[in-house]
Amino acid sequence: MMNKTPKQLRRAEPYRICTVGPKKRDGMSSDVVVNSSPQNARNITSGSSGMTFFKKYGQHMLKNPGILDKIVQAAEIRSSDTVLEIGPGTGNLTTRLVAIARKVVAIDIDARMIGEVKKRCIQIGYNNLTVIEGDALRTEYPKFDVCTANLPYQISSPFIFKLLSHRPLCAVLMFQKEFAERLLANTNEDKYGRLAINVRLFCTVTKVCKVAPGSFNPPPKVDSMIVKIVPRQHPLVVDFGEWDGMIRICFSRKRRILRSLFNKQSVLSILECNYKTWCSLNNQIPVDVPFKQHVMQVLESTGLVERRSITISIAEFLKLLLAFNEAGIHFMNVANPKSQDQTKVQSHIPQFLFEQDSLDQD
């Protein structure tokens, strides 16, 4: 379960923190990993609280024990880990997490859920839970090793990039099936686009399982899917501003060939302006051929000029960007003193929010 938030809100807001005290394991050693599905946790369902679930928060409580166990299994939680859970709801997953992790930090915008999950963990004898009442997109996260979350569609993209800036060991996340399929899409697949490409600069994404509406209370109107995200140990080396500028052009019409996309006057005008600025700043003499021809020569040198964006891999896009930059063609305003050095730099997590699928056109 995860709360919704307006896109225009960015600033961190004050949040309330409550720690339920030191961890208690009834005499067990702290390094013992117990069953992730204790019977007393399994028998308490979200319906037992009698709460009203709010549509504005996208509240759908996962109640299927088998799916809950798959989340825990995929997360590969160690007894020394701190787990960040976004949207604990009434605690159906939380009660499994506290039985394994050293500490669980749960964030929820709904104070009622915060109270319920605290109560349930205390009832089953675990006091290693810290709760934070606040918006997950605007709350500062404490240090953590693993993340679990159940997210509404409209905040899925910004949450991923906020999460990746913390570089956890892994994250097991519930998304609407349509969004998850966009994350998992590969070349030549209909949903392959900017989202899949940009996320994979920073991490690998694998499917855990599908989740039917009946696994929730109340049931949502759409299917869901759980994915596992693991940050790359060695992030790809690329200027993200340059990269995203090029990818936006390539996926403005992802089924058109690159020759057609880079033949647009609007695209050529911007690139030529950047090129002239780059030449001036670097004391370079502009090429003695029309700029359009210069662009096409770069495309032809990569062997991608007749390829459609939907068929091009990340490695090939990186090759294309390098060829453009080596020819002095840039996708950012190189005169901006705040822009990064135009040589390659290690990729970083962008500070803006990714727009939804309207950007990936046929």
TrEMBL record:
Keyword Methyltransferase in annotation: yes
Example GO molecular function: rRNA (adenine-N6,N6-)-dimethyltransferase activity
Keyword RNA-binding among UniProt keywords: yes
Pfam families xref list: RrnaAD (PF00398)
HAMAP family: 16SrRNA_methyltr_A
Similarity field: Belongs to the class I-like SAM-binding methyltransferase superfamily. rRNA adenine N(6)-methyltransferase family.
The protein's name in its UniProt record: rRNA adenine N(6)-methyltransferase
Species, as recorded: Babesia duncani
